[in-house]
């Protein structure tokens, strides 16, 4: 039978197909045995939660092993999410809603990325699903595959205050997710709304508070709600400090709904004088006895279960004091402020105590250097200084101060007057020692615009009588004072008046001398200020002894070389040793052409007289150290000290003579 062309062609085609099948099977076996690469793919998100309408970064770290010949990756975002920002080598399959990369014909590690954006109204978790194919072998993408929706709850209000009794409250919760509420205080109980989904309300109650004010919190959807509850009772103030002397004080009590309360002292030296019990609001008055010890002590008063703390300063131990500097006038408040500057002229450290007294002689507690007390201990190194500044707050109050130290100190009190917060006047007065008698220049004009003020402090522990009289320029006594305030000055007390008050019938246009003397035992400290046309200045107060004054009283001219020839004109007087200072030969006082006062003393260590001439308005002092080389001549050194509490400058050799201008 003869074959046709068609039959021959069909047979050849069958043979060709059979051979191709064998080849495909062979290639399949080869691929399976030779392309055996594997690897891994791990996903991560750019945020811990998603926000509807906002893009979320998705990264896939692909790591093939060394034997991998080729690989491809595909990842499917949650249904309805849109895709953008696909990294190089990738595209979005819009039919299958997948992001696809590859194939990559190598075994290099790659980080693939894209941005998936959830619809605005999305809710619930978002799930991703994907695989990586390594040489035809699929491996699921691991790592972050599910992401939750971000939750942004809020609460209103965020806090509330309650009275001391039982009470309730509520908090509104605004949220688009699940939330819980929990109390963080045993006295706060959640009544309803311990959990919720979406918007809701949390209600709570607080128990009765029999103690002091307390604060607690409730945590709602990770937000903090603060609960503040006052006590059934409150007291004001919570504490107070007292000086070492016997003093009194009071405490205000506020009681919720007229509740009953009692008060009791926890210390023998604290006595409740009134208000030991009450109903509703009230006041507890108490007293403290004088503190006999040098150390401070602390006690308490319990009022309605609350503690009021009382601190009392110890009595200053001045038994070792060997030197005293006195400031007979301290003014504080009402526009007045006093600064006391103590300077140590020696080389060794000096310790001591600054004590303040009221006009009646009791300890005066006031704010000094931001601390309230009636006495202030100090330590001043050699050539150093220490400043004590009153606060100037409140209404004006006056008194005096004493410095008790173990060695020599010098001191200046500066009185500052302010108006509208601006400094209008500043007057400096040297510290002084206790004296028995004094003399002060006295002047009065017909318009009464010129007045001499006198501040006199009793430095002893017994009442003091001081006799005052006025002498004219001819040396005749024209008037004695009958002012009773000077006849019985209490121990550590003080009197401050203008001369016109002590001598109300003093003639107009008078010029002369005001003199005073202690009657009997005791001593006093005195300063004098002049008020002229509304401006104050200091006047030297002399501890007079006529037999000694004649030796050096009068004007002296000091010559020294300081940036060229200089000279100072000083009026100097001599005073006997102050009471209680028998080892000191005496003191020198003085003034200059501008009526700026000077005060000096004999320094045993320096074997020299020291005369300090402060100029507080310009914040400097001129210090003279000299000896009398003859009846009418002196020699020594001039030192410039600027600022007043700074170190001394260099020695400028001086000489001087007694002369008549």
Write up what this structure looks like:
The protein has 661 residues and is mainly β. It has 6 domains: 39-149, Immunoglobulin-like, CATH 2.60.40.3550; 154-229, Immunoglobulin-like (Sandwich), CATH 2.60.40; 233-312, Sandwich (Immunoglobulin-like); 323-427, TM1070-like (Hypothetical Protein Tm1070, Chain: A), CATH 2.60.290.11; 437-539, Hypothetical Protein Tm1070, Chain: A, CATH 2.60.290.11; 546-658, Lipocalin (Beta Barrel), CATH 2.40.128. An 8-stranded antiparallel beta barrel has the order 50-51-52-53-54-55-56-57. It has a 5-stranded mixed β-sheet with strand order 5-8-3-1-12, with no helix packed on it. A hairpin with a 2-residue loop joins strand 35 (366-368) and strand 36 (371-373). It starts with a helix and ends with a strand.
List the keywords.
661 residues, mainly beta, Immunoglobulin-like, 8-stranded antiparallel β-barrel, 5-stranded mixed beta sheet, 6% helix
Helix/strand layout:
Layout: H1 5-34, E1 39-45, E2 49-50, E3 56-64, E4 71-76, E5 82-84, E6 90-93, E7 98-104, E8 110-117, E9 126-127, E10 129-134, E11 137-140, E12 142-143, E13 146-149, E14 154-156, E15 159-162, E16 167-174, E17 178-183, E18 188-192, E19 195-197, E20 200-206, E21 214-220, E22 223-229, E23 233-236, E24 239-242, E25 247-255, E26 260-265, E27 270-274, E28 277-279, E29 282-288, E30 297-303, E31 306-312, E32 323-332, E33 336-343, E34 350-357, E35 366-368, E36 371-373, E37 375-380, E38 385-389, E39 397-405, E40 410-419, E41 422-430, E42 437-444, E43 450-458, E44 466-472, E45 477-480, E46 494-498, H2 499-502, E47 510-518, E48 524-532, E49 535-539, H3 546-552, E50 554-561, E51 565-575, E52 587-592, E53 597-603, E54 608-615, E55 620-628, E56 633-641, E57 652-658
Parallel strand pairs: 1-12, 2-13, 15-22, 24-31
Antiparallel strand pairs: 1-3, 3-8, 4-7, 4-10, 5-8, 6-7, 9-13, 10-11, 14-16, 16-20, 17-19, 17-21, 18-20, 21-22, 23-25, 25-29, 26-28, 26-30, 27-29, 30-31, 32-39, 33-38, 33-40, 34-37, 34-39, 35-36, 40-41, 42-47, 43-46, 43-48, 44-45, 44-47, 48-49, 50-51, 50-57, 51-52, 52-53, 53-54, 54-55, 55-56, ...
């Amino acid at each position: 039978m003869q074959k046709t062309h068609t039959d021959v062609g069909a047979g050849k085609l069958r043979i060709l197909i059979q051979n191709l099948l064998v080849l495909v099977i062979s290639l399949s076996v080869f691929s399976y045995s030779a392309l055996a690469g594997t690897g891994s793919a791990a996903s991560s998100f750019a945020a811990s939660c998603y926000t509807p309408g906002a893009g979320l970064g998705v990264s896939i770290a692909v790591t093939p092993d060394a034997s991998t010949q080729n690989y491809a990756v595909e990842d499917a975002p949650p249904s309805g999410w849109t895709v953008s920002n696909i990294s190089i080598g990738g595209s979005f399959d819009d039919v299958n809603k997948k992001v696809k990369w590859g194939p990559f014909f190598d075994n290099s590690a790659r980080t693939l990325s894209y941005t998936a954006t959830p619809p605005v109204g999305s809710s619930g978790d978002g799930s991703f699903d994907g695989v990586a194919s390594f040489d035809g072998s699929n491996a699921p993408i691991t790592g972050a595959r599910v992401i939750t929706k971000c939750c942004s709850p809020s609460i209103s209000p965020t806090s509330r205050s309650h009275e001391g009794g039982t009470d309730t409250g509520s908090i509104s919760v605004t949220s688009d997710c699940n939330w819980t509420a929990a109390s963080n205080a045993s006295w706060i109980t959640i009544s309803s709304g311990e959990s919720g989904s979406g918007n809701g309300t949390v209600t709570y109650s607080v128990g009765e508070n029999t103690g002091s004010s307390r604060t607690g919190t409730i945590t709602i959807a990770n937000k903090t709600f603060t609960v503040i509850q006052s006590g059934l009772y409150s007291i004001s103030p919570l504490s107070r400090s007292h000086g070492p002397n016997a003093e009194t004080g009071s405490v205000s009590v506020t009681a919720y709904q007229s509740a009953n309360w009692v008060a009791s002292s926890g210390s023998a030296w604290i006595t409740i004088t009134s208000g030991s019990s009450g109903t509703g609001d009230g006041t507890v008055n108490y007293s403290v006895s004088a503190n006999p010890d040098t150390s401070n002590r602390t006690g308490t008063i319990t009022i309605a279960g609350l503690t009021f703390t009382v601190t009392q300063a110890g009595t200053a131990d001045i038994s070792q004091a060997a030197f005293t500097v006195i400031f007979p006038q301290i003014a504080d408040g009402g526009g007045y402020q006093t600064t006391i500057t103590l300077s140590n002229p020696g080389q060794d450290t000096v310790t001591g105590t600054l004590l303040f007294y009221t006009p009646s002689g009791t300890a005066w507690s006031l704010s000094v250097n931001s601390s309230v007390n009636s006495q202030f201990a100090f330590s001043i190194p050699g050539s150093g200084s220490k400043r004590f500044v009153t606060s100037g707050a409140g209404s004006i109050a006056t008194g005096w101060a004493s410095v008790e130290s173990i060695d020599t100190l010098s001191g200046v009190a500066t009185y500052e007057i302010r108006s509208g917060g601006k400094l209008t006047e500043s007057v400096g007065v040297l510290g002084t020692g206790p004296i028995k008698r004094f003399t002060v220049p006295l002047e009065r004009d017909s318009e009464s615009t010129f007045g001499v003020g006198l501040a006199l402090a009793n430095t002893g522990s017994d009442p003091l009588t001081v006799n005052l009289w006025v002498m004219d320029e001819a040396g005749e006594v024209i008037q004695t004072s009958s002012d009773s305030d000077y006849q019985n000055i209490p121990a550590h007390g003080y009197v401050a008046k203008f001369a016109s008050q002590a001598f109300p019938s003093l003639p107009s246009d008078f010029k002369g001398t005001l003199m005073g003397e202690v009657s009997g035992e005791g001593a006093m400290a005195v300063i004098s200020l002049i008020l002229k046309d509304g401006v104050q200045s200091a006047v030297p107060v002399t501890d007079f002894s006529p037999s000694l004054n004649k030796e050096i009283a009068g004007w002296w001219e000091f010559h020294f070389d300081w940036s060229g020839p200089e000279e100072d004109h000083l009026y100097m007087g001599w005073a006997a040793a102050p009471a209680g200072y028998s080892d000191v030969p005496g003191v020198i006082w003085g003034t200059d052409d501008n009526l700026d006062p000077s005060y000096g003393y004999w320094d045993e260590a320096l074997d020299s007289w020291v005369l300090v001439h402060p100029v507080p308005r310009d914040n400097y002092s001129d210090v003279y150290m000299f000896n009398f080389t003859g009846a009418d001549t002196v020699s020594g050194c001039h030192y410039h000290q600027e600022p007043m509490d700074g170190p001394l400058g260099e020695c400028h050799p001086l000489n001087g003579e007694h002369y008549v201008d």
